[in-house]
Amino acid sequence: MIREIRQVLLRDLGALQTALRAYPTEETIWSVPPGIANSAGNLTLHIVGNLQYYVGAQLGGTGYERDRTAEFSDRNVPLSVIEQRIEAAMRAVSDTLDRLSEPGSDDQYPIEIGGRTLTIRLFLTHLVSHTAYHLGQIDYHRRLVNGINRPAGPSIAGL
């Protein structure tokens, strides 16, 4: 199960890169049309910050320090910097989950989540869902901003 979670998270981070590159300009990544709460840029910062913290720092001991407020308040971060952050999140996910054993995934996650104690496997499953949810938001944001109703890249069939 851990191998599969790793595979899906890495796929989705790659899809995130593809989606951002499909915007017509870097400025449109940061647009917030009426009725939309967050830009694709902020959702991206949130996804990578979330994975860096919950996978990299908590399970992998990377020392990553999260600034959740900045994930939603920073604006106009250059695409090159965002791509570096995505790559760093990919390394954190890959390296950490490569070292995590399947039996170890039944251990308790190191911190409580929402006042609850969860297994590592359950929380990693949540992180897959959380990442996919925001990736879907970014896809709709891109379609709205671009005015084009088609996917940015290949489907999940490539797993």
Description:
The protein is built from 6 helices and no strands. With 159 residues, the chain is mainly alpha-helical. It is elongated and about 45 Å long. It has helices spanning 2-21, 26-29, 40-60, 68-73, 79-99, 120-146. It has one domain (2-158): Up-down Bundle (Four Helix Bundle (Hemerythrin (Met), subunit A)). The mean pLDDT is 91. The chain is 62% helix and 0% strand.
User: What is the number of E strands?
Assistant: 0
The Rg value, from CA coordinates, equals: 16 Å
**Beta-strand percentage?**
under 5%
Low-confidence stretches: none
Count structural domains.
1
Give me the number of helical elements.
Answer: 6
User: So what's the CATH class?
Assistant: Mainly Alpha
Strand and helix layout:
Blueprint: H1 2-21, H2 26-29, H3 40-60, H4 68-73, H5 79-99, H6 120-146
List keywords for this structure.
159 residues; mainly alpha; Four Helix Bundle (Hemerythrin (Met), subunit A)
Summarize the structure.
With 159 residues, the chain is mainly alpha-helical.
